[in-house]
Amino acid sequence: MPHDAVTQGSSLPNKAAKRLAQVPAEWRKTLIVLAIGAASVILLAAREWGEMAHQWWNIDTYTHILLVPVIVGWLSALKLGELANITPRPWMPGLAIVAAALVIWIAGRTSGINILAHAGAVGLLQAVVVTALGPRASLVLALPIGFAAFLVPVGDEFIAPLQAITADIAVALTHWSGIPAVVDGIYIDTPIGLFIVAEACSGVKFLAAMVTLAVLVAFTRFESWRRRAAFMAASIIVPIIANGIRAWGTIFIAQSQGVEFAAGFDHIFYGWIFFAIVVAIILSVAWRFFEREPEENGWSASQVAAFPWLSRLEAGSISPIVAVAGFAGLCIGAGIIGAIVAPAALG
Questions:
Q1: DSSP 3-state assignment of 182?
Q2: DSSP secondary structure letters along 331-343
Q3: Is 284 exposed, middle or buried (0-12, 13-18, 19+ CB in 10 A)?
Q4: What distance in Å separates the CA atoms of residue 49 and residue 68, rounded to the nearest whole number?
Q5: At what angle do helices 92-111 and 46-58 cross, to 10 degrees?
Q6: What is the dihedral of CA 172, 176, 179, 181, to 10 degrees?
Q7: Phi/psi at 116 (nearest 5 deg)?
Q8: Does residue 167 contact residue 247 with C-beta atoms inside 8 Å?
Q9: What is the per-residue pLDDT for 55?
Q10: What pairing do the DSSP bridges indicate for beta strands 193-196 and 182-184?
C-alpha cells in the first residue's frame, strides 16, 4: 500500500479524535447518555421499528417518511450554534415521560393496535432525548424533537372518507361539465363506463406527504400562529380538492378519448407531476408571507434562558449515571410487565 494512503487513512481517526476533543465535556457525557438511552428503547421496541421501516420502504403512502430522519437531522444542525451556549443536564421528570411512552407502547402491543404501539415506540425515543438533554436544550430543539412524530405511519385510516370526498367532487364537476353521471358511494357511472375511486386514487399518499411538508414550512417560515393555521388549512384543503379535480379530469378525458387513454394520461400526468404543480402553487402563494429564515425557527438559547419557569424545571436535574440507570430500570420493567401481560406478543 502506498505510504500516502497509509498516512491519509491513519489521519482520519486523529481528525475524529480532535473534533471530539472540541466537544465540551458535559456534552460528551450527555451524548453518551443519549446513545445508551436511544439504543435501549429502540432495542426494546425493535419489532415496532421493524414494522415501521417496512411500511416506509414498501408502502407508497409512507415513502415520504424516509425523509423525516434527514429533516430532523437538518433542523437539529441548524441549532448547533445555540446548543453550544447551553450546558445540558439530564432531567428526572423526563423519566416520567419515558414511563408514559412505555405505557402507550405496551398498550398498543398487547392490544394489537399497531398505530398505538408505533406511536409509543417513537414517543420513547423523543422522551429519551428530552431526558438526556434536559429542558433547556430540549426547548431549543423543540421543533426537531416534535417533528420526529411524523415517523409514525399514519394515513391509511383516512382512505375511506377521502374516497367518498373525491367521488363527490368528481361527480359535481362531471355534472358541471355537462356529462351525466350517477354516484353510488365510490362508484361513478357515466355514458363511457363505470369508474371507481380506488384506494390508490383517494389522494391519501399525497395528503400525508403534504401535511408533513406543511408542518415543516409552517414552523420554519412563519412566526404568526394565524398564518401557520391558514397555511396548514390550505395544505389540507387544496390537495383534497385537487384530487377531486384529478378524478374528474380522468372521467372527462375518457368521454372523448376512451378509458385506456384516460388511464394512461392519469398515470403520466395526474400522478406526482400534477401534485408537484399543486405544491408549487401553494408554496408560491405563501412565499410572500414568509416571516423568517429556517435557521431562525424555534427559541434561541437566550430566549429559553429568559423563561421565568425554567429554573423550576431545571431543579429536577440528575447526573448522567442516574439517567442511564433510569433508562435501564424502565426498559427492564416494561419488558417484564409486557411479558406477563402478553407473553406471546412479546415473544
A1: strand
A2: HHHHHHHHHHH-H
A3: exposed
A4: 14
A5: 70
A6: 20
A7: -70, -45
A8: yes
A9: 96
A10: unpaired
Distance CA(176)–CA(284), nearest Å, equals 29
Sheet holding 193-196, edge to edge: 182-184, 187-190, 193-196
Mind listing the pLDDT tens digit for each residue in 57-66? Answer: 999 899 999 9
Which residue, chain included where needed, has cell 380506488? 198
Whether the Cβ atoms of residue 299 and residue 78 lie closer than 8 Å to each other: no
H or E segment and range at residue 184: strand 182-184
- How many residues in total does the chain contain? 347
Q: How far apart are CA 51 and CA 248, in angstroms?
A: 36
pLDDT given at position 345: 47
Rounded CA separation 124/106 (Å):
11
For 31-56, letters b (16+ CB in 10 Å) and e give eebbebbbebbeebbeebbebbeebb
Residue type, 115: I
The confidence band for 18, taking pLDDT boundaries of 50, 70 and 90, is low
* Rounded Cα gap, residues 108 and 101, in angstroms: 11
Q: What is each CA distance from 176 to 169, 182, 295, in whole angstroms?
A: 11, 13, 47
Give residue-wise pLDDT tens across range 32-59: 999 999 999 999 999 999 999 999 999 9
The DSSP code sequence of 269-314 is: TTTHHHHHHHHHHHHHHHHTT--S-GGG-S--HHHHHT-TTHHHHH
Asked if 133 and 71 count as a contact pair (C-beta separation under 8 A), the reply is no
Residue 192 DSSP one-character state: T
Number of other CB atoms surrounding residue 255 within 10 Å: 17
Contact 212, 219 (CB under 8 A): no
Helices and strands (H and E) in the chain: how many:
17, 3
Res 297 pLDDT > 80: yes
